Amino acid sequence: xxxxxxxxxxxxxxxxAGGVLGVKxxxxxxxxxxxxxxxxxxxxxxFCYYLASKKQRQYSKEFFQNVNCKLQxxxxxxxxxxxxxHFLSFADMVLDKFNAWMGKVVIGKNAFYTENxxxxxxxxxxxxxxxxxxxxxxxDALRAIxxxxxxxxVNAVFFTQNAKQVNSTLKKLAPQANFNVIATDTIGPDxxxxxxxxxxxxxxxxxxxxxxxxxxxxxxxxxxVKANFLDMPCNxxxxxxxxxxxxxxxVQLLFGLKxxxxxxxxxxxxxxxxxxxxxxxxxxxxxQKYIQQYANRLEYYTLKYPYQWFNFFDFFxxx
Length: 319
What we know:
Blueprint: H1 3-6, H2 19-52, H3 54-73, H4 83-101, E1 111-113, H5 117-121, E2 129-133, H6 139-149, E3 154-158, H7 163-173, E4 179-183, H8 189-200, E5 204-208, E6 224-229, E7 232-237, H9 239-247, E8 250-258, E9 265-273, H10 283-304
Parallel strand pairs: 1-9, 2-5, 2-8, 3-4, 3-5
Antiparallel strand pairs: 6-7, 8-9
Helix pairs in contact: 2-4, 4-6
């Protein structure tokens, strides 16, 4: 594998040919025959995708190697991880996501709050707030379920050129959902002003903190901070944390994690900061502190739910 392949940005990775059509076919089969018909077909499809995805297999194996190294340092036994099972877990997550938007995931049946997460997630004292999310687990589906029912408006910031397609698909699946997708390449003044208006109206802004946004043409590099994650120096974008500081509101961490034993979704919500404050004199040091704090909690839940890690790109060697 070449250095160019290793450092390829996640946003530039192209989907396998026929991927969208394949998803539509599988969803049609699922709607007709349910899981009983769907699962026997899903396994060979995922196996073919697994065989065709050499880079993603490599990234999965490297991730699990880092997990085992960290477990060893913590005095815990190493695990025998399977990259194929990792792919199956991703497919199961996608299915759960569509189930949630179709109203087939029910709190108290398919998903449960952990500890104080329910009171934390619905604490709106002080108005709107930010949910700082990640690509660990299935948080998108959980936002759709809960905030559709509670009538709070969720504004999800997507760093992808396909955000309009995502928004269209979600609206078709759940036209009654109070869910908006905001597409952006980078977080600039216009985005910050728009989201501040949302917060002032008591709405929710959801943004992921574990991916570096796409670089615009003519821009030399990402604005990132190196933070320790699984004992590796990894890039985390400054943008989400700077945005949180500009919004001047409560920030919480939100995870939706499939429990490997019970097979239900564990909903985790934690207070993170209220608000994130970046001083003028120690701005870089403050950013480093908050981003490392985020990376620490991301690592904590990654070690508990390793098969829920859905960053299938070279997370540990980003240029």
